[in-house]
Write the structure tokens for this entry.
Amino acid sequence: MKKKQWLRSLEGADDRYVIEAAPTGAASHKRSRKWARMLSIIAACLALALLLGTAALFIPYKTTPPSVAAYSGSEYFDIIQRLNEYNHEPPLFKNTFDLLLSIGSMFTNSKEQMDSTNGEAALDPGEAGGSYAEITDNQVAGVIEADLIKRSDSHIFYLCGEELYIYSIEGENSTLVGTYDTKQYGTDYFQAKEFFLSKDCKTLTVLANYGKKTFTEYRCMVKVIVLDVSNPASVKEISNTDVSGEYLSSRLTEHGLLLMTRFSCYEPDFSNEHTFVPQIEIDGELQSMPPEHIVYPETLTNPSYTVMLMMDATGQRVIDSTAFLSYADDVYVSPDAIYATREFDEYGAANLLGEQDYRTRSEIFRMGYGADGFDSLGSVTVDGYVLNQYSLDQYKNTLRVVTTTSQSSTMANEWGLMPSYIGANLYVIDLDSMEIAASVEQFAPAGEDVKSVRFDGDTAYVCTAIRMTDPVFFFDLSDLDDIKVKKTGTIEGFSSSLVNFANGYLLGIGRGSGWNTLKVEIYTEGEETVESFCKFELPDCEYSQDYKSYYIDREKGLIGLGIYAYDESYGCAYIVLQFDGQSIREVLRVPYTVRNNPEQMRGVYIDGYYYVCNHSLFDVLALDLD
């Protein structure tokens, strides 16, 4: 029916009903027709609006990202296109009708879910210098990690917050001999993270996060501060260098200092490359990293960079730089390569309702480094996600990696449901071909995720857990064609750190029979299983979970770490445990009534004394281990 005919029919119908209801008489009839005509016009307008509105319900939403053609002349245009695609969030629904239909379905499903679960309980889920002595238990021999504590044969250097403290090593006569406030730049935000001490113990390199203000923006930066500590009473700055991003990690190798930062660009301004390209200070000026120095996949899975700098041994001069865009999860450093990981979801085929299952995958990119700088060496993709740096290990021209595979669906994601863990995997990658040479997949029971990993030569140890029970797995990797696996079986608690300890023992540090119970356990390898040899438990406390905060002395069987007690004192303590070959016992406890972060507490045993650093507090206690 044409619009005019449709309006006339509607008007005539209204007139008829009005006339039948109106009083008799011509004037009365005219007034009635006048009101009828007005009512018919109003009704027609409402009907037209309804018709047009109904049509609008089916207008498809725009699914393509905004145009960035205006930046086609930029040398970073390829990166701009990828970031633009990543940051564009396509609409979840086809059109307004699809949105309204989904909302209606959501209310229906919510009511059904509430009805079906009603009544059920929810499940609970002098002069410095001298000889350098390493304190940090580094993951890789010859690759030194930054820390909050370092020492020479005469001094202890400890960094906490913004302050550097220098103590003499003189047993009970030890004293504070120097301090230095690393926040010298007047910024609103500044946080010193870690530092290195040079081999001659005269230069100290602090790595700090800080906020840099400009007229138009506020940037997260890392400042590399090089200090002269040859005279502890008068520490002086030698140089400082800025790098884009937030501090991620660092290593000191025979080729120099490797600095890794994380630079994110969730809301880039493509007219200002400072917002989407990492910056490095060279000759006192921030310069954008050249596009040829940036590695990125075809499709981004993360809008963040892992920025890597090779500097001289003290951090005063930049030798080379590179950046991984999207590879921004974990970083592992071997004596000759850096491995950066990116996690992504791999989707299966959609069903009739358009729903898809997906599972986690990880791509591991290998970047070689040496005296000449960085060298791209390819990548490999494995199933699952990588927990942390200890889940990777380079050994005899292979890379070993342990992952956890999780799976979910688009429907579960829309409802905010957590993915399910479907197993743990161990992969051995040949570094010549960058292909998987051997693997043990789905070795853990369904529902368990990886809690800790430790590689030791031809051996790999893995702890997986579901809630508060765990097995510890032992892998013999000496023959990749016949990988042998042993395990403890189910035991209480789990280890958040595994440590290759004295005389072939395995040390586990983690949670015990309860979530607030510290458990330190020694494991041994049996004929067919991994067995718990002995353990120490401390209830009602939290413990430091930063592995670098632990003092590990394999020769003397010492384990030192900070705890936070939940007893009546509600304070911190630093405890020292000793494994004597038969049992684990507490040999020292230094209590603190103040509430400090246990992960910032550090300790070291030197010639019959134990030195404990805790913020501005310093304690020296005699410790007889005979």
